[in-house]
Amino acid sequence: MTVLPKEICSGCAPSDRQSSISPREAELIEPQKRLLMSHVWKAIEDAGYAPGSLAGSNTALFIGTADSGYANLYAQAGVKSDGSGTPASMGPARMSYFLDLHGPSEPVETACSSSLVAIHRGAAALREGVTDLCVVGGVQTIPTEHKHISFSQGGVLSLDGRCKTFSAHANGYVRAEGVGMLVLKRLSDAQRDGDAIYGVILASAENHGGRANSLTSPNPRAQAELLVSAYRRAGVDPRSVSYIEAHGTGTILGDPIEINGLKSAFRQLYAETEDSTSMAVEGAHCGLGSVKTNIGHAELAAGVAGVIKVLLQMQHGVLVRSLHAEELNPHIDLAGTPFDIVRENRPWSTPCDRDGTPAPRRAGVSSFGVGGVNAHVVLEECQ
After folding, report:
1. Which of 74, 222, 320, 338 gets the highest tally of CB atoms within 10 A of its CB?
2. Listed residue (227, 340, 362, 361) closest to 285, CA to CA
3. How far is Cα 126 from Cα 20, in angstroms, rounded to an integer?
């Protein structure tokens, strides 16, 4: 699967579609759905397509989204709503209606892993021939205080407003708003059509942690199984993976659990590829980072934020540092592993195989939902 360019440029709806949204509807569409629609539009434009040209096609939407609670503000303001604007399903549905798209149009809600699961489902739909083009991603707004208060009472939020992933001072995460959209297409089709390609999805996987210590506790064994499944599907030497974008919410116990899952998975993957064709690697060669230290935890949009970070790093050939990790969490032990925390910006060197032939940069992105739904995507630069 290819990842076509993400949203960067702007655009406005063509005149023949202006009437698709009445003035009254436009007044009542909540911010989260406005962002979803505008950034799906921008992503399509940036991929080189006129959105109007997709009318009648099997273009699909898989978007991490949920009820933002905005309906409470309607009630408080005494505004009468017809109710069609608030359900999560109406976000992608409204955009599919607006553009006359006939492919699947689905909201995905698996908590913090929503947008990465959306990417996984979009890639699967392309492989299965359900669609020839799809827009995937996630969107999150925080228009009311209710969830924030609940999460604060649950003790998961950082008291000083910083996500300190991998740090000895990790004390929870900071909530963030955001939106990110990507256009996916089969690689052979994108190459045939001369599309600009930001990266290639080699494989993806999704699972659930099953029974752990509690419903909200991570299961390192399930996380390891997820990674093993993803890299087996990718069919690449795990030694060629030189960066992992971690879920990394920044909790003193959650971060080490994720690291232990990574260590377990790659230990198994390395053992499975101990042959003459494996890449010779000694010492740490795979950087670890988390975009949450830069922008906070965007929850529904967190996974796609991690993917966009990796694609930008590939584009610029640089691994950027994770913040606030000057003193590492004492429960994280990376001795004897291929991993190290990226704490300073550094060139992302091109790996080579045993014959010295340059290989594409490869990376993984993890996203774990608080209810146990895990996802991982394996990415490769397009050469």
Report:
1. 338
2. 340
3. 28
Least confident of 80-89, 179-188, 256-265, 320-329: 80-89
Mean pLDDT of 212-228: 88
Radius of gyration of the chain (CA): 21
Return the exposure string of 169-197: e unless at least 16 CB atoms fall within 10 Å of the residue's CB, then b: ebbbbbbbbbbbbbbbbbbeebeeeebeb
123 near 1, Cβ under 8 Å? Answer: yes
* Average pLDDT rounded to a whole number, residues 258-276: 89
User: Per DSSP, what are the bridge partners of residue 107?
Assistant: 63
* Secondary element (H or E) of residue 120: helix 114-127
Q: Tell me the C-alpha distance between 204 and 206, whole Å.
A: 7
Query: Can you count the helices (H) and strands (E) in the chain?
Result: 11, 13
Q: Which amino acid is at 155?
A: G
| Strand-by-strand arrangement of the 60-64 sheet | 105-108, 60-64, 134-140, 178-185, 2-4, 199-208, 373-380, 362-368, 241-245, 286-289, 339-341
Q: Which domains are present in the chain? A: 2-141+177-192 (3.40.47.10), 203-380 (3.40.47.10)
**Which two tokens mark 314?**
């590939």
DSSP bridge partners of 175: 297
* End-to-end CA, the chain: 14
What is the spatial distance between Cα 381 and Cα 201, in angstroms, rounded to a whole number? 9
- pLDDT interval class at 355 (50, 70, 90): low
Q: How many other C-beta atoms lie within 10 A of the C-beta of residue 253?
A: 11
User: Is the torsion defined by CA of 41, 45, 50, 54 positive or negative?
Assistant: negative
